[in-house]
Design brief:
Blueprint: E1 5-6, E2 11-15, H1 21-30, H2 32-36, H3 48-64, E3 68-74, E4 77-88, E5 93-100, H4 109-123, E6 129-134, H5 139-147, E7 151-162, E8 165-175, H6 176-180
Parallel strand pairs: 5-6
Antiparallel strand pairs: 1-2, 2-3, 3-4, 4-5, 6-8, 7-8
The structure holds coenzyme A (COA).
């Protein structure tokens, strides 16, 4: 299947589609403890049927343009997901979300996937501002926007309720102008 975005020879992003459900569920199921610490939806993914339902919803959102869910493939294996969890069309801003299998961390996969995705969102989707929302204690996740030149705008105090407790959320943003003016461009 043709990728949605080809990042490089080994790495590509694929739009949600039914055939990916088994591999996505397997990745979530095998990485449950590691992912659930930061992603509240993991406990609600109990069977492949749940992932099939999520895939159908994602396909619907991908076609109506309200979200954009893609899956990261490395050498033909499902490595994680990267997407827009919410588009604000009026103000041309959107929020990006992501996860990787634990055994795929530390290789720059998310950094490279995000760089191509960001390029797509600014150039093809006409976005002006991208946001990443992270729990400040999630050091690995914080490092992703920082590495890509996002700026921290501060903390939304206790903005996330997860497992019965409230958590702070740090907001990172990247503007189209920041990206275009990056020194390495
Ligand atoms: C957040 C998450 C995707 C980060 O994964 P990651 O592997 O740290 O991120 P990257 O793929 O960008 O890799 C960066 C690492 O690869 C290294 N690297 C190797 N080649 C690289 C390259 N070409 N470019 C950038 N980094 C590279 C970096 O030095 C860094 O290593 P380090 O963490 O040991 O310093 C992952 O930890 C995760 O899925 N966590 C659980 C779910 C989660 O928290 N999601 C986000 C919720 S807000």
């Amino acid at each position: 299947m043709k990728p949605f975005i080809r990042v490089d020879e080994n790495l590509s992003l694929h739009l949600a589609r039914p055939e990916l459900a088994e591999a996505v569920f397997k990745a979530v199921n095998e990485n449950r403890d590691y992912l659930r610490k930061w992603l509240p939806w993991v406990d609600g993914t109990r069977s492949v049927e749940d992932t099939k339902t999520f895939m159908q919803e994602s396909m619907k959102h991908n076609s109506d343009g309200s979200r954009l869910t893609t899956f990261i493939m490395v050498n033909g294996q499902l490595a994680g997901s990267l997407g827009v969890v919410h588009f604000n069309r009026e103000h041309l801003r959107c929020e990006i979300g992501y996860w990787l299998r634990e055994d795929h961390q530390g290789q720059g996969i998310m950094a490279r996937a995000c760089a191509s995705f960001i390029e797509y969102l600014f150039k093809k989707k006409g976005m002006n501002r991208l946001e990443v929302l992270v729990m400040p204690t999630n050091e690995r996740s914080r490092a992703v926007p920082i590495r890509l030149g996002f700026l921290s705008e501060g903390i939304l105090r206790k903005a996330l309720k997860m497992y019965g407790s409230f958590h702070d959320v740090e907001v990172f943003s990247l503007l189209k102008d920041d990206w275009v003016l990056r020194p390495e461009k």
